[in-house]
């Protein structure tokens, strides 16, 4: 049985000690029985410096969806929140998530609200999740909010999986192409270069260029790999740290053929689904727009949504500022939002727009795959063809010289 180091207060005096118990919650209960007010964040399991299963484990959206749906079902069935969290933690296979659920349960037992307990784990539970939980606790409809959250997370995860799935095939083809080209340039071309050297003839310009590239790559392979790694690292660093860099890249991505329309449809679907979920959960439209802007995933649309929020604070409808950005929010989206505002059915309209654009994402993904396949095959064939032709040109030249 694990040993816990604890701290607590008894009559205003700070007390410390060690206790053998099956869990941290058992330590809390036993200290209260001893009339000691425990300090939850000062209770630690002794001797566990690190755990590889926790270090390398990751918490997926699927884990969050299952947790949310299970908790919704348990609360709807009449189980207390703490009991529901305890049951889910006991049966969860992801040790990292299990540890977080146990911590949340202990915070709730110590008197925190569920939303406040979740807010201490922002990498797992984002602001949207926490705000909806807070609204659910305030309105006494936590089970309904959890159900809506599970539906929302599932739909967002579905879109993400479709886009990631669409990228698998191109990634494999590009990876194989790079590997084949690297093998040809580093290992095959030098063999031909030695043969041409023995011939003693002047190489054609194309052949000389390929040979020069081959020798440069072979002699500087480690520097090339290091340079590529540094470029990717710096690009990621500046993207995360510089607003200007993010704005330039996000604007560029939205303009790329096929990729831009796919990203825009994904962003619109996320915007409408997120705002619909927030308004349905009782979040004010201004707060909902602020949360939605941060969840948009693109700084260009984020700034557009925040501009719309400022316009709404000045008395405009949501549709009016969105109508000024037709490249980001098409007329159909603006018109449906306007109708929703006029009829008091904004949530329903937003969900319908999200449904429509989620289907459009499927079509855009299929179009992207259909276009990328011939492009990649043509590029790979042309590149290999140029190398092959460049290797045979000296032979043709030699044959024509002998014939003369």
Question: What is the topology?
Answer:
Elements: E1 3-10, E2 13-20, H1 24-33, E3 37-38, E4 44-45, H2 52-55, H3 61-76, H4 81-91, H5 95-109, H6 114-119, H7 127-139, H8 142-199, H9 205-219, H10 221-241, H11 243-255, H12 259-280, H13 285-294, H14 299-313, H15 319-323, H16 331-343, H17 346-403
Antiparallel strand pairs: 1-2, 1-3, 1-4
Tell me about this structure.
This protein is mainly α and 404 residues long. Helices cover 75% and strands 5% of the residues. The protein has 17 helices and 4 strands. The protein has helices at residues 24-33, 52-55, 61-76, 81-91, 95-109, 114-119, 127-139, 142-199, 205-219, 221-241, 243-255, 259-280, 285-294, 299-313, 319-323, 331-343, 346-403, and strands at 3-10, 13-20, 37-38, 44-45. Strands 1, 2, 3 and 4 form a 4-stranded antiparallel β-sheet that branches. Strand 1 and strand 2 form a beta hairpin. Helix 8 (142-199) packs antiparallel against helix 12 (259-280). It is extended, with a radius of gyration of 30 Å.
């Amino acid at each position: 049985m694990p040993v816990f180091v604890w701290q607590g207060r008894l009559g205003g005096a700070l007390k410390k000690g060690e206790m053998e118990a099956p869990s941290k919650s058992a330590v809390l209960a036993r200290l209260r029985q001893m009339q000691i007010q425990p300090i939850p964040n000062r209770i630690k399991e002794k001797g566990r410096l690190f755990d590889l299963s926790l270090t390398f484990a990751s918490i997926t959206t699927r884990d969050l969806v299952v947790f949310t749906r299970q908790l919704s079902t348990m609360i709807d069935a009449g189980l207390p929140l703490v009991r529901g969290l305890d049951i889910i933690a006991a049966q969860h296979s992801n040790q990292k998530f299990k540890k977080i659920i146990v911590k949340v349960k202990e915070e709730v037992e110590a008197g925190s609200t569920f939303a406040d307990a979740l807010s201490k784990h922002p990498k797992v539970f984002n602001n949207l999740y926490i705000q909806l939980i807070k609204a659910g606790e305030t309105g006494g409809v936590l089970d309904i909010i959890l159900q809506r959250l599970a539906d929302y997370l599932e739909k967002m995860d579905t879109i993400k999986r479709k886009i990631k799935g669409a990228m698998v095939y191109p990634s494999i083809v590009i990876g194989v192409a790079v590997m084949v080209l690297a093998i040809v340039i580093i290992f095959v071309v030098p063999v031909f270069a030695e043969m041409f050297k023995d011939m003693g003839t002047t190489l054609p310009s194309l052949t000389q260029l390929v040979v020069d590239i081959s020798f440069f790559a072979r002699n500087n392979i480690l520097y090339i790999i290091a340079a590529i790694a540094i470029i990717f690292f710096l690009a990621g660093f500046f993207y995360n740290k510089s607003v200007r860099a993010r704005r330039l890249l996000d604007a560029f991505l939205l303009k790329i053929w096929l990729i831009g329309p796919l990203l825009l449809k994904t962003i619109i679907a996320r915007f409408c689904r997120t705002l619909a979920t927030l308004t349905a959960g009782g979040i004010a439209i201004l707060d909902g727009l602020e949360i939605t802007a941060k969840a948009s995933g693109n700084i260009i649309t984020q700034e557009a949504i925040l501009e719309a929020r400022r316009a709404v604070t000045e008395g405009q409808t949501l549709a009016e500022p969105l109508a000024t950005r037709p490249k980001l929010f098409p007329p159909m989206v603006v018109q449906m939002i306007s109708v929703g505002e006029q009829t008091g059915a904004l949530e329903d309209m937003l969900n319908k727009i999200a449904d429509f654009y989620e289907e459009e994402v499927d079509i855009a993904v299929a179009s992207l795959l259909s276009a990328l396949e011939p492009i990649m095959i043509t590029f790979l064939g042309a590149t290999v063809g140029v190398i092959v032709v460049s290797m045979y040109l000296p032979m043709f030249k030699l044959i024509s010289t002998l014939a003369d």
